[in-house]
Amino acid sequence: MIRGIASSSGIAIAKVYQLAVPDLTFERKSVNDIENEITRLTKALDISKRELEKIKENARKSIGNDHAEIFSAHLLVLSDPEMITSIQDKIKTDRINAEAALEETANMFIDMFKAMENEYMRERAADIQDVTKRVMAHLLNVTFSDLASISEEVIIVSDDLTPSDTAQLNKQFVKGFTTNIGGRTSHSAIMARSLEIPAVVGTKEITKEAKNGELIIVDGINGDVILNPTAELISLFKQKQVEYKNKKEIWAKLKDEPTVTSDNHYVELAANIGTPEDVNAVLKNGGEGVGLYRTEFLYMGKSELPTEEEQFDAYKSVLKQMGDKPVVVRTLDIGGDKELSYLKLPEEMNPFLGFRAIRLCLERDDIFRTQLRALLRASVHGNLKIMFPMIATLDEFRQAKSLLLEEKNKLITEGIKVSDTIEIGIMVEIPSTAVIARQFAKEVDFFSIGTNDLIQYTMAADRMNERVSYLYQPYHPAILSLVNNVIEAAHAEGRWVGMCGEMAGESIAIPILLGLGLDEFSMSATSILPARAQIRNLSKEKLTSYKDQLLSFNTADQVETFIREKFPIK
Fold first, then answer.
1. How far is CA 491 from the centre of its chain?
2. 187 is catalytic
3. Where in the chain is the domain with CATH 3.20.20.60?
4. Whole-angstrom Cα distance, residue 498 to residue 444?
5. Which regions in the chain score pLDDT beneath 70?
6. In 227, 488, 505, 554, which residue has its Cα 20 to 30 A from 56's Cα atom?
7. Catalytic residue among 187, 361, 381, 476
8. How far apart are CA 189 and CA 218, in angstroms?
9. Closest C-alpha among 445, 373, 365, 446 to residue 399
């Protein structure tokens, strides 16, 4: 048995399909016909663009616009004048073949992005690698493995899966996958959950151990991979497959049921979305609201800022689809760690802690005011709540709220209707904010805890850095103490608290958060029904009685062991 990270639930039993790595070796050559090399490069780029447009469209149909936007980033790389001009200049100046110029230029950009200490920039490096391989294959006339043409039941085994690999998977035949590297927040893991196929990532050694055609079991519930299973194990896991299928059928019956504990305490289960198209999955899975609408997708993959009308249409669409259910919209969280090429932001040594989110919006209030106007105009079409990200000080919140109220008054003066019931809140993702939550609670309408950042900032550990990944501990006493402080502060002032980080949908975290008094859990849409089923079997009163004990533990392991023993997942 090989252990990995359970990144998409379910159990798959099928034959190994080793994803072949194409041979992209070439010889660096001096050339005389410069124009021919540039023509070859242009042709390879054009073919790659057409392929990616097709993959993007297939991804949009199978896994939604949110994930398909990854390929907008890939297409931007292929159209990036700085990169393309650098390759062409290298061909001309060094008089070398297109393959060598492509590799040397791409490696320069990849090394630059890999050296940056934040998740988004490292993803840019992966994007450039993915795109470069495709262009190189066309220069060399090498064929990629065509995952879309798989016509028998298999489990993909690979070092990693690129976004373009994952987008081509046909779940009718690809029953699951397992990789050497990756984590729960990697592109491939997120896409696997959208496709609802089992996945185990981060095994470190699966490609060395697995052989093409042999039988393999991927347990995406516990994070185990079994090669050449015995007849007894196959029988056991087939039974587990049946049990999991039965569970899903039971969960499906809860779609229109309220989320209540066994002692009749109600909490709200909401979903995180990135585009209006994602709302369908929220409703299909019984979501009681949208706990996080990431508006930055409106700004990415474009050559200019979205207009007020474009934003208004998107916000209106989400609100109308959700009816009277709450929709929490996070204002623009971009800049620094999420670049927009058309904004020309200065480079920073540590952009993840730099000029981004509310910091950018308060300085570039022209951008911020446009978004606020669009949101306010859309507010009459549903139950809108507005949330400011990356708030570190009360002054930042007051400034942001002041701009919002200014734009509201302008619209009313113009005769445009605006809802009078918009709640205004903040994301709690900076430790300083969690520490003085009582002061914030006197002025905000709600909190939403962003655990992805709160954990890595509190533990000083980049969650995407494998060397320090052991420090990314959601159940660490320091994290639980901060979460508890935020909830107690909010409730003391009559405010509600949600959570929109990965932690909100984890089966170990749910009993802890219920015991601490969390009011709203926001997660991926496919996690809602399993979470609802789990919550219906838990007693809020019993969990609350364990609160002091949970907060007294010294380590994350002690917390997790306690929860597993007291509240085993059924």
1. 29
2. yes
3. 250-267+429-570, 269-424
4. 13
5. 62-67, 114-124, 146, 148-149, 163-164, 185-187, 301, 335-341, 349, 351, 463-464, 466, 570
6. 505
7. 187
8. 14
9. 365
What pLDDT shows up at residue 146? Answer: 67
Q: Write the class of the CATH domain 34-140.
A: mainly alpha
CATH architecture of 250-267+429-570: Alpha-Beta Barrel (3.20)
Q: Is 138 a catalytic residue?
A: no
Helices (H), 115-171: 119-140, 163-167
- Indicate the SS3 state at residue 500: coil
Tokens, residue 558 = 């002690």
Q: What is the pLDDT of residue 230?
A: 96
Strand locations in 196-246 (E):
199-201, 215-219, 224-227
- Residue 117: the pLDDT is 45
Structure tokens, 136: 């190189």
The residue annotated as part of the active site, out of 67, 361, 381, 500, is 500
> CATH 1.10.274.10 occupies which residues in the chain?
34-140
- Helix (H) / strand (E) element for 388: namely strand 383-388
Domain 269-424 architecture: Alpha-Beta Barrel (3.20)
Predicted pLDDT of residue 118: 47
> What per-residue confidence (pLDDT) applies to 191?
73
Helical (H) or strand (E) element with 89: helix 81-94
**Where does CATH 3.50.30.10 sit in the chain?**
2-17+147-231
Measuring CA to CA, which residue among 333, 321, 336 is closest to residue 295? Answer: 333
